[in-house]
Write a structure and sequence with these properties.
mainly alpha; rod-shaped; membrane
Length: about 90
């Protein structure tokens, strides 16, 4: 889908910042008191762990894909190749 783990980490941090901003806004703009401000702040703040968990899961998937492609390259190189991936010539045999 094109979503990277770093995007989820940024969303988690943004959720923490939005939680604080919503709390201050609700506390200063609404006359409902601190209780409603607390509820809004907690509601948005609860998103952060989900974003961080999704970031960790995506990071694990990205790492698995990177390892898989490097193992695939190594297996394609074969056991007879040198360090540059060239297969030795048998012309002199």
């Amino acid at each position: 889908m094109g979503i990277k783990s770093s995007m989820m980490y940024v969303a988690g941090l943004a959720s923490i910042g939005a939680s604080v901003a919503v709390w201050f806004t609700s506390h200063s703009q609404e006359r409902a008191g601190v209780d409603r401000a607390d509820r809004w702040g907690i509601f948005i703040g609860e998103w952060a762990p989900t974003f961080f968990a999704m970031g960790i899961a995506l990071r694990m998937e990205e790492t698995r894909e990177e390892l898989g492609s490097s193992i695939e390259r190594d297996s394609l190189r074969g056991s007879y190749s040198d360090s540059e991936g060239r297969v030795p010539s048998r012309a002199g045999v």
